UniProtKB/TrEMBL annotation:
Protein name per the record: Zinc finger protein RFP-like isoform X1
Matches recorded under SMART domains: BBOX, RING
Gene that encodes the chain: LOC129327348
One Gene Ontology MF term: zinc ion binding
Keyword Lipoprotein attached: no
Database matches in Gene3D superfamilies: Classic Zinc Finger, Zinc/RING finger domain, C3HC4 (zinc finger)
Record keywords, A-Z: Coiled coil, Metal-binding, Zinc, Zinc-finger
Coiled-coil blocks: 152-244
Matches recorded under InterPro entries: TRIM/RBCC, Znf_B-box, Znf_RING, Znf_RING/FYVE/PHD, Znf_RING_CS
Domain RING-type: 16-58
Domain B box-type: 96-137
Originating organism: Eublepharis macularius
Length: 358
């Protein structure tokens, strides 16, 4: 049992976390030391211009030049050979048993499709199997082998589709995060030009963007979890069928109904809906806010310049004519500031953009 557990752990260490199969042409990411199939890593990274991440730990990869791991490739080949030899030994051991009917001591040359089991010619003539669909073992083996091969094609195609969806999901999430990053930089550049009041609004806006980032990550993780679960289920079924078609007739035809039933009960993969329209709408709203901020800041600059110009000539302008572009506390003297139409438009726009916190 300990040896079997160690062998299982070794197989897991030699499995790519992207395709969930043995490494093929393994390469190592220098920054984190994780290994992947060369094709899987290339597919996961997508376009060369996009920022690259490790598919396993999500760490940023500075240079896209993973180093080939030849020692790991050699170990994978050795383990594959050992596993193949092990399966052959097990198959021979099973094939050596049960070649004759326990009841009639005749060779098991026939396969009963109704009972899904091997029978002898005497069993075939018995009342129990008289009206059953019985066929020679080799014909049955070839029939079910062909059926399994057809099913494998379907399963492998589904696996390919899921891997493609997984890559697309990663690329789309990175693009969305880049978009929010860009909008954040624009927002920060504009908000720093404002007074203490606008610094409070900056915190609010950044908090909303952070919430969107978390929502992007949450939706991405949900979809990735679903894809990984479906992929794991497919890999198990594929591995089972791949091992079955390599077995002799006596082993392949054992429990064949259960294998087919698991395939039939498998839920058909549906392309997942990626990111919600509400999420993209919220990101677009950041763009709209930034455009308005740019325009309104220009108006605010003009109003401030006008105010500073008036301050240079205090003796020429009565106090009542000065337009302050800020809100003043006037409880002591009951003073109410007056705004020009341009200034009032600026602050009304900010109030509409920022909401009730204004």
């Amino acid at each position: 049992m300990a040896a079997a557990g160690a062998a299982q752990e070794l197989c897991e260490e030699l499995t790519c976390s992207v395709c969930l199969d043995y490494f093929t042409d393994p390469v190592t990411i220098a920054e984190c030391g994780h290994n992947f199939c060369q094709a899987c890593l290339t597919l996961s990274w997508g376009e060369s211009g996009a920022e690259a991440f490790c598919p396993q730990c999500r760490g940023i990869v500075q240079q896209r030049n993973p180093k080939p791991n030849r020692q790991l490739a050699n170990v994978v080949e050795i383990v594959k050979k050992l596993r193949l030899q092990e399966r052959r030994v097990e198959a021979k051991a099973v094939e050596g048993k049960g070649r004759t009917c326990e009841k009639h001591e005749e060779p098991l040359k026939l396969f009963c499709k109704d009972d899904q089991g091997l029978i002898c010619v005497v069993c075939d003539r018995s009342k129990e199997h008289r009206n059953h669909d019985v066929t020679p073992v080799e014909e049955a083996r070839q029939e079910y082998k062909d059926k399994f091969c057809d099913l494998l094609e379907v399963l492998r195609q589904e696996r390919t589709d899921i891997l493609a969806h997984k890559v697309n999901l990663e690329e789309e999430s990175l693009a969305l995060l880049e978009q929010t990053k860009s909008e954040r930089q624009k927002a920060m550049a504009e908000l720093r030009k404002l007074n203490e009041f606008l610094e409070e609004q900056e915190k609010l806006l950044l908090a909303q963007m952070e919430e969107v980032d978390k929502e992007i990550a949450r939706e991405r993780d949900e979809h990735l979890a679903r894809l990984s679960k479906e992929l794991s289920s497919l890999e198990n079924l594929i591995q089972e069928m791949e091992e079955k078609i390599q077995l002799p007739a006596s082993e392949l035809l054992q429990d064949v109904k259960s294998t087919l039933q698991r395939y039939e009960e498998k839920e058909e993969f549906e392309s997942p809906v990626t990111f919600s329209s509400e999420l993209t709408r919220r990101i677009q709203s950041f763009t709209n806010i930034n455009c308005s901020l740019e325009n309104d800041l220009e108006q605010l600059k003009d109003a401030l310049a006008h105010h500073l110009q008036l301050q240079k000539e205090p003796t020429k302008v009565p106090l009542q004519a000065v337009h302050y572009p800020v809100r003043l506390k006037t409880k002591k003297r009951g003073f109410t500031p007056r705004y020009s139409d341009k200034q009032r438009t600026v602050f009304n726009t900010f109030q509409a953009l920022m909401g009730d916190n204004y």
